[in-house]
Design goal:
- The strands form 8 sheets. Strands 2, 25, 26, 27 and 28 form a 5-stranded antiparallel beta sheet that branches.
- By secondary structure, the protein is mainly β.
- 2% of the residues lie in helices and 54% in strands.
- It contains 1 helix and 28 strands.
Length: 311
């Protein structure tokens, strides 16, 4: 696969700890110069280059990679690590049906050059584009998450989060709410397991939103402060929130029984901003009670650190 480093990892990354709370199990050196995203599928860890690929997703025996050339490539998964390209989206038919207008692009002051201010919905079974929401935002769409019920949350460089749903019998998503708390940008979004809580990462804090009343009504709960730079990535695991930042640290936040989220662990050791975090293994119980969790964090220097955290 182009610009994707595939690493085979053991289902048992946990080892005897030298620290009572957390430990860096290993540091993986990859040929990928600047890691944009990490993804885990079965026993494989995928690391993509920021100069080529924005995100990686999986569906059954397929891998979908979103590239800087505004195309999605579909790969057939192979256990021999020789993944085969089977399609490139949009197809020629899609190009004729849905012409991509220049107004849906916006110039951004980054090495990435240009970015979308729209989003598209695809059928992953037949690789067809189902809908294209043009001009979803007035600036670049930095991040997107989808709830199991189909609700879409888009985070923009203008600091807005927009909520999109299929209303009534409509086949396409419509704008149902706009969340405003960040200044000036939203870099990362994450949902908890049941979609009742939304986390948005901005320039210096993480905003926590909770669903109230109808499904699309998200209300502000609290702002989590602690990172010394923009929050670039987040992932939720059970009752935990894991965040990575340009301050080169990974923080783990735990929800209290009575109060909100508190930072319980700070993982330090990266020499460049942390661009992606993933949970790479399930929880393992240890002898004195509690459990341990394995996490991978990828930074812009191409290094991946594997952490074992006790909770």
């Amino acid at each position: 696969m182009e610009r994707v480093c595939i690493i085979e990892v053991s289902q048992k990354l946990n080892s005897h700890l030298q620290s009572p709370k957390h430990n860096c199990v290993t540091t993986l050196k990859t040929p990928t110069p600047r890691i944009s995203c990490l993804a885990v599928h079965n026993i494989f860890l995928y690391a993509a280059s920021i100069n080529e690929i924005n995100s990686i997703a999986f569906h059954k025996a397929k891998i979908f990679t979103a590239h800087q050339d505004c195309k999605i490539r579909v790969w057939q998964i192979s256990h021999s690590k020789q993944h085969h390209l089977i399609s490139t989206l949009p197809t020629l038919k899609d190009r004729f049906r849905h012409f991509v207008f220049p107004r849906n692009y916006v110039s951004v002051r980054r090495t990435l050059g240009y970015s979308f201010r729209s989003f598209k919905t695809w059928n992953v079974e037949n690789n067809r584009c189902l809908e294209s929401i043009s001009s979803a935002h007035q600036d670049a769409v930095n991040t997107l998450v989808v709830c199991e019920n189909g609700t879409v949350y888009t985070g923009c460089a203008d600091g807005l989060i927009r909520v999109w749903e299929k209303v009534g019998k409509e086949k396409h998503h419509s704008l149902v709410a706009t969340l405003e708390k960040h200044k000036p940008t939203v870099n990362a979004l994450a949902l908890n397991g049941d979609g009742s809580m939304l986390f948005s990462g901005g320039c210096d804090s993480i905003t926590v939103w909770e669903r109230k009343g109808n499904e699309h009504q998200m209300v502000f709960v609290e702002a989590l402060r602690g990172h010394a730079g923009p929050i670039l990535c987040m992932v939720t695991v059970d009752h935990l929130l894991v965040s990575g930042s340009s301050d080169r640290t990974v923080r783990i936040w735990q929800k209290g029984k009575r109060h909100g989220y508190n930072c319980v662990v700070v993982l330090e050791g990266h020499e460049q901003p942390v661009k992606s975090v993933v949970a790479v293994a399930g929880r393992d119980e240890y002898e004195n009670g509690g459990s341990s969790l394995s996490i991978c964090s990828g930074s812009l220097d191409g290094e991946i650190k594997v952490w074992e955290v006790r909770t």
